[in-house]
Specification:
heterotrimer, A alpha+beta, B alpha/beta, C alpha/beta, B: alpha/beta, 5-stranded mixed sheet, 41% helix, C: alpha/beta, Rossmann fold, 7-stranded mixed sheet
C-alpha cells in the first residue's frame, strides 16, 4: 500500500491563531501555541504532531490568512 | 463620419448630439423633466451602432451617477444628465468622483424647487453646483450655457477640462436653455479614443492591469488622517490651478457702464435686452455674464466694480450668486433681483428692478 | 522520511496564492472574508485573468479588498458596486468585472442596484458575503440577520414586528431573467471551500462568456459580531444560518450566451 507523507510550514508571524486549521486537520497534527505568542499577540498554530501529517491541505484550505504551505509525498511500494 | 452641420434643435437634443460627436464613451441617465430629451435623443440616434458609445437608462439617478463613477474609473469619457431633484440624488456619487479625482461630465437642466417644486426653469441650484453640493471639500468646474450653441460647445469644453484636471465638470443649464430651439453648429465627429490612447492618457485608470506591473486602485478612502489631509491639500492645489487658468466670462457694454448687471444662463439674454432698452433711455448699463460659475470671475467683477455706481444680479432664485458678487465687490452696492418658482422675468421687470435699487435712475 | 525530505519544492501541494498581497489583512482572526479572498486570488491566477480583471469593492468589512488581491480595483460607495460594475463592464467588455459585497451593501442599501444590475443581465459576477450582521460598524442588524439574533441594534433579538424578516435576496435574484447562475455556498470546511471555488470559477466563466449575471452567496461567519470563537461560529452557522439560507444552487447556467 502507498504510504503518504505530509508536512506543513506555517507562517507563525502571519497566523492570527483562529484555530480553524486545528479543527480542520483530520489527523490532529496541529495545535495553537499554548503560551508563546507572535508579534501581534496571537497564539499561532504549529505542527505539534508532524509525523501524523498526510499533506491533505485541509488546514491550508480553510486558513483565512493563507499562512500555511503544504507538502506531500506519496511513497509507493517498490 | 459626420461632418460639421448646421441644425435647428433644442438645447437638450444638442447635448446628445454633441456627446456623440465628441466621442463620449458612455452616457448613463434617468428620465426627469425638463431634460429627458437628452436620453431620448441618444436612444433615437443609437450611437452604439456607430461610435460604439454606451447609452443606458439606469434604475435611478443614484445608479446613473455611480455608473458614471465606474466608467470614469476605467478612464472612459462618461456623462450623465438630470434636473434638480435628480441632481440632489446624484450628490453622493459626485462627491466620490471628485474625491477619486476622476473626469466626468454632469449636466443639470435646472427646474424650480425646493422639493419636487416645478418643472419650469430655475437657477436655484447655484449654491449646490458651485459650493460642492455633496459632502466634503470639493469643487466642480461649473459651466453655464446661455445658448443652444453653448450647450453643444460646453460638452467638449467640459470633458476637456475634466480630463485636464482630473476633476468632474458640470453644465449648469436652466430649463429655458434646455427646452428652447435655436440654430446650432454641430462639430464634426471625433473618433472615440482607442484602448492604447486611453491607457496613454489615463495611466491611473482601473481598466485591467494589461502590461502594467502594479495595480491601479480608484478609491476615495484614506483612514490615515495625515494622508487624508495630504489628499485634501492636493485637491485644493488643483482647485487653485483651475481658478488661475479657467475663468471664463463675457462682458456686454461694460466699458462705459455706470451700472453693472451680473447674470448667467438664459437670464443674461433677458438682461441684455433690458440693457439695450436702458441705453436707449440714456442709462449706461453693462453686463458681465459668468460662463464659469466656478471658478467665479471674481477678479473681473472686482475690476469692473471700481468704475460703476452699483451692481444688480438677476437670477432665477432668491439670491445665490449675489453672495459671490458681494464677496468680489465688497465696497460696491450690490443688489439682487430674482424670480422663483419657474417664473422668468421680462426685460421690463429687470429695468424696473434696476430703478428701484438705484433711485437716481427713476 | 524526514520532514526536511518532504519539504521540497517538487512536493508542494498548497501555497499562498501569487495574487494575494503580501500585507496582512485587517480581518479578525477566523473571518470568512480571508478564505474567499484567497479563492478569488487563486482563480484569477489559474484562469489567467490577472491583467484583465476589475474588482469592485464595497463599503463594509471588505472595503479594503483592493489592498489584498493584486488586480485593478474600484472602491464603490455603499451599495453601489453593481452600478459601478455595470459601467466598468459595458465600457470594457473584454474585461472580467466582479463585485465583492456584504449583506448590508448588497441586500439593504444597494438592493435597487443589485436587483437592476441582475435584471439587466449585466455580464458580471457578484460575490456576496452573507454573515447576517454589519461587521465594520460594530455588529448592527443586517437585512439577513436571523429572527431572534442579537445584534448591537437588536439587543433583545430581531423581531419580525419591529424589523421585518431576514431577506433571502439570492432567492429573489434567482427568479430574474437576467441572472444565469445563482448559488449559495459556504467556506466552513475544506470540502465547502472547494465547492465555493468551483462556484466562483463558474461565475467568472459566465461573465466572460456573456451569459448574464452570476451571484455566488457565501454564507459566512462574523465571529466578532456573533461573539463566538471562529470554530463555534462555524457550528452556529451550520445549526442556524443554513436553515434560513440552505446551501446549493438556486439557478444553474445554460451553456449558451444570452445574446
Amino acid at each position: 500500500m502507498a504510504k503518504v507523507h505530509g508536512a506543513v510550514v506555517i507562517d507563525g508571524k502571519r497566523c492570527k491563531g483562529c484555530d480553524l486549521c486545528v479543527v480542520a486537520c483530520p489527523t490532529d497534527v496541529l495545535l495553537l501555541q499554548p503560551k508563546e505568542v507572535n508579534d501581534r499577540g496571537y497564539h499561532y498554530a504549529y505542527a505539534a504532531n508532524p509525523d501524523k501529517c498526510i499533506g491533505c491541505a485541509a488546514c491550508a484550505t480553510v486558513c483565512p490568512d493563507a499562512c500555511i504551505e503544504v507538502y506531500r509525498v506519496v511513497e509507493r511500494p517498490a | 463620419m459626420e461632418a460639421e452641420e448646421v441644425r435647428l434643435m433644442k438645447g437638450n437634443e444638442a447635448i446628445a448630439h454633441a456627446a456623440i460627436r465628441y466621442g463620449v464613451d458612455g452616457y448613463f441617465g434617468y428620465p426627469i423633466t425638463p431634460q429627458s430629451e437628452v436620453l431620448e435623443t441618444l436612444a433615437e440616434l443609437k450611437p452604439w451602432e456607430t461610435t460604439g458609445m454606451v447609452v443606458l437608462q439606469a434604475e435611478s439617478e443614484v445608479a446613473a451617477i455611480n455608473m458614471v463613477y465606474g466608467g470614469a474609473a476605467t478612464g472612459k469619457a462618461v456623462m450623465t444628465s438630470s434636473s434638480s431633484p435628480g441632481v440632489s440624488l446624484k450628490q453622493e456619487g459626485i462627491s466620490y468622483i471628485a474625491a477619486s479625482e476622476l473626469p466626468a461630465l454632469i449636466v443639470n437642466v435646472m427646474r424650480g424647487g425646493p422639493g419636487l417644486g416645478t418643472i419650469q426653469p430655475s437657477q436655484a441650484d447655484y449654491f449646490q453646483a458651485v459650493k460642492g453640493g455633496g459632502h466634503g471639500d470639493y469643487h466642480l468646474i461649473v459651466l453655464a450655457p446661455a445658448t443652444v450653441q453653448e450647450m453643444t460647445d460646453f460638452v467638449a469644453l467640459g470633458f476637456d477640462l475634466a480630463f485636464k484636471y482630473r476633476n468632474p465638470a458640470m453644465i449648469l443649464a436652466d430649463g429655458v436653455v434646455g427646452q428652447m430651439m435655436e440654430k446650432v453648429v454641430l462639430p464634426p465627429q471625433r473618433p472615440r479614443r482607442t484602448e492604447e490612447e486611453l491607457r496613454a492618457q489615463c495611466p491611473w485608470a482601473a481598466c485591467g492591469k494589461g502590461d502594467r506591473k502594479n495595480r491601479n486602485v480608484i478609491t476615495s478612502l484614506e483612514l490615515d488622517s495625515a494622508r487624508m489631509e495630504e489628499n485634501n491639500h492636493r485637491f485644493q492645489a488643483t482647485y487653485k490651478l483651475i481658478e488661475q487658468n479657467e475663468v471664463r466670462y463675457q462682458t456686454y457694454y461694460a466699458d462705459d457702464a455706470d451700472y453693472l448687471i451680473v447674470a448667467f444662463g438664459s437670464v443674461a439674454r433677458i438682461c441684455l435686452k433690458a440693457i439695450e432698452e436702458a441705453r436707449e433711455a440714456g442709462i449706461k448699463v453693462g453686463m458681465l455674464r459668468p460662463i464659469t460659475l466656478w471658478p467665479f470671475p471674481k477678479t473681473q467683477i472686482a475690476e469692473l466694480a471700481k468704475s460703476v455706481r452699483g451692481i444688480l444680479t438677476v437670477e432665477l432664485n432668491a439670491g445665490q450668486m449675489v453672495e459671490d458678487v458681494r464677496l468680489a465687490a465688497p465696497t460696491t452696492p450690490v443688489y439682487h433681483f430674482g424670480r422663483m418658482g419657474g417664473i422668468v422675468p421680462n426685460p421690463g421687470e429687470v429695468l424696473q428692478a434696476l430703478k428701484e435699487h438705484f433711485p437716481e435712475l427713476a | 522520511m524526514t520532514t526536511e525530505e518532504i519539504i521540497q519544492p517538487q512536493n508542494k501541494v498548497y501555497s499562498r496564492p501569487r495574487l494575494l498581497d503580501e500585507r496582512d489583512t485587517h480581518y479578525c482572526p477566523g473571518c470568512s472574508h480571508g478564505v474567499v479572498h484567497k479563492i478569488i486570488a487563486e482563480l484569477l491566477d489559474e484562469m489567467g485573468l490577472e491583467n484583465k480583471t476589475v474588482g469592485v469593492a464595497p463599503v463594509g468589512c471588505a472595503v479594503f479588498a483592493y489592498n489584498y488581491i493584486d488586480v485593478d480595483w474600484v472602491e464603490a460607495a455603499h451599495g453601489r458596486a453593481p452600478a459601478v460594475a455595470t459601467a466598468a463592464s459595458r465600457l470594457n467588455p473584454q474585461n472580467l468585472v466582479f463585485t465583492y459585497q456584504g449583506d448590508g451593501d448588497l441586500a439593504a442599501i444597494g438592493t435597487a442596484e443589485t436587483i437592476h444590475a441582475a435584471n439587466r443581465g449585466e455580464n458580471i459576477a457578484m460575490i456576496f458575503i452573507n454573515n447576517g450582521i454589519y461587521g465594520m460598524t460594530g455588529g448592527q442588524m443586517a437585512p439577513t440577520t436571523l429572527l431572534g439574533m442579537k445584534t448591537a441594534t437588536t439587543p433583545y433579538g430581531r423581531t419580525a414586528e419591529l424589523n421585518g424578516y431576514p431577506l433571502p435576496i439570492s432567492n429573489i435574484l434567482a427568479t430574474l431573467d437576467g441572472t444565469c447562475y445563482v448559488t449559495r455556498q459556504a467556506v466552513h470546511t475544506p470540502a465547502a471551500v472547494r465547492k465555493t471555488k468551483a462556484a466562483i470559477k463558474k461565475a467568472f466563466e459566465n461573465a466572460l462568456a456573456k451569459r448574464g449575471t452570476s451571484v455566488v452567496e457565501v454564507v459566512s461567519t462574523c465571529n466578532s459580531g456573533w461573539k463566538l470563537s471562529p470554530a463555534k461560529s462555524n457550528e452556529w452557522m451550520v445549526e442556524h444560518m443554513f436553515e434560513k439560507y440552505p446551501l446549493g444552487d438556486l439557478k444553474t447556467p445554460s451553456e449558451e450566451p444570452k445574446n
